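Regression test case RT-17, inverse folding.

Input:
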């Protein structure tokens, strides 16, 4: 691991990258960060599955257990099909 050393007058500061240990959320876990803080993972998956997908892609320490991943995959599929269905209805009008 590389680190930078900066000298400010006679004080040396060692700047190390932050290392997070993964937090594995299950379906009953309460999210304790971000705009959905305080809500259960199950609730957020059912209402905003794309937010949870974004967390998996962008939050280094955010992980889901296998059951939560399965439910997320199903919800993302449902949302994908609903948006395609709504788009098809728009084209028919």
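Golden output:
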């Amino acid at each position: 691991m590389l680190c930078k050393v900066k000298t400010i007058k006679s004080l040396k500061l060692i700047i190390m990258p932050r290392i997070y240990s993964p937090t594995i959320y299950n379906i009953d876990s309460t999210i304790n960060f971000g705009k959905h803080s305080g809500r259960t993972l199950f609730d957020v998956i059912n209402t905003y599955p794309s937010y949870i997908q974004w967390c998996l892609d962008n939050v280094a320490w955010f992980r889901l257990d296998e059951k939560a991943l399965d439910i997320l995959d199903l919800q993302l599929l449902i949302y994908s099909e609903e948006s395609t269905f709504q788009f098809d209805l728009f084209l028919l009008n």
